[in-house]
Structure formats: structure tokens, C-alpha cells
Design a protein that fits this description.
This protein is an alpha/beta fold and 152 residues long. The chain is 35% helix and 26% strand. It contains 5 helices and 10 strands; from the N terminus they run E-E-E-H-E-E-E-H-H-E-E-H-E-E-H. It has a 5-stranded mixed beta sheet with strand order 1-2-4-7-9, with helices on one face.
Length: 152
């Protein structure tokens, strides 16, 4: 199954994450997303969306719990994707139609514009609810992009 679909209609590209029911991001999905968000002078704007039942539940837990080599590759690829999305020339409009957790929430934070569909969805990070510290990159993104009154 393809992890995303891409439609190019200059000056816009429409990228839809479609990696299964929870839209979990594997290494292949992260690499495909990085390629889809790469600079394209003919189509510099990306409309990024997920499935109608959820934007993304984050990185693949099986890979994160597996070998350190695979986990490190996934985390490095996601970090590179986030930094290039935040600092690169591609303008990203994220359309969130459902849950966006962990890496899904980070994708929203690096987007230039975020649009949400009304509903009882969870958007955020799981670590604080488990009594864990938020890793440095998501904490930095949250402080940069969110209204301080919304940080808790």
C-alpha cells in the first residue's frame, strides 16, 4: 500500500497521507513525505492532509521498539523532515480532519497554516500525560508555534 498520494496542479501540490487506519509513519512513509514536500519552484505550496478519520497517530511504534539501528534511522529521517519543512521554501497548509498525535502533531507545528475540521479529536503529545518529559524537538516546536496560553 502506498503511504501517500500526490497530486500536482501548479502552483499547488496536494499530499494526502494514507498509511493505513491510524496513518502511522514508517521510515518509508517519512521518506516519501520528505520527497513530496521537497522544494518545487513550479508548485511551491503543499496542501497536506491525512485520512478522513485521522491526520496521523505518529511514528511506527514497532520500529521505535525494535532495533536501535532502525529506530535511529526513523527518528533521524523524521527530524530531517521536520527541520526542512520548517526552514525550507515550501509553504505547507495542513488540513487536519482527525487525531494528530506525536509526530502527527509535529507535522502540524511545522506547517505554515493549520486548518482543523470540527470534532472531538486529540491533537498533541502523549509523553506529558504519561509523566514523561517532552523530547527537545517537539518542545521547541510547541514553544515556537503555539500560543503560550495553550501550552500545558
Amino acid at each position: 500500500m502506498s503511504s501517500l498520494s500526490l497530486e500536482r496542479r501548479p502552483p499547488v501540490r496536494r499530499v494526502r497521507l494514507d498509511a493505513g487506519k491510524r496513518n502511522v509513519l514508517t521510515l518509508d512513509a517519512v521518506e516519501a513525505l520528505a520527497e513530496a514536500l521537497a522544494p518545487d519552484p513550479g508548485a511551491p505550496v503543499v496542501i497536506l492532509s491525512g485520512r478522513p478519520d485521522g491526520f496521523s497517530a505518529g511514528l511506527d511504534n514497532a520500529t521505535l521498539a525494535g532495533s536501535s539501528r532502525e529506530r535511529d534511522r526513523l527518528l533521524a529521517a523524521m527530524g530531517e523532515l521536520l527541520v526542512s519543512a520548517l526552514a525550507g521554501p515550501t509553504r505547507i497548509v495542513a488540513v487536519c480532519e482527525g487525531h494528530a498525535v506525536a509526530a502527527g502533531a509535529m507535522l502540524l507545528l511545522v506547517s505554515d497554516v493549520r486548518l482543523g475540521v470540527p470534532g472531538s479529536y486529540k491533537i498533541g503529545f502523549t509523553e506529558p500525560g504519561l509523566g514523561m518529559s517532552l523530547p527537545e524537538l517537539p518542545a521547541l516546536l510547541a514553544r515556537m508555534r503555539l500560543d503560550r496560553r495553550r501550552l500545558h
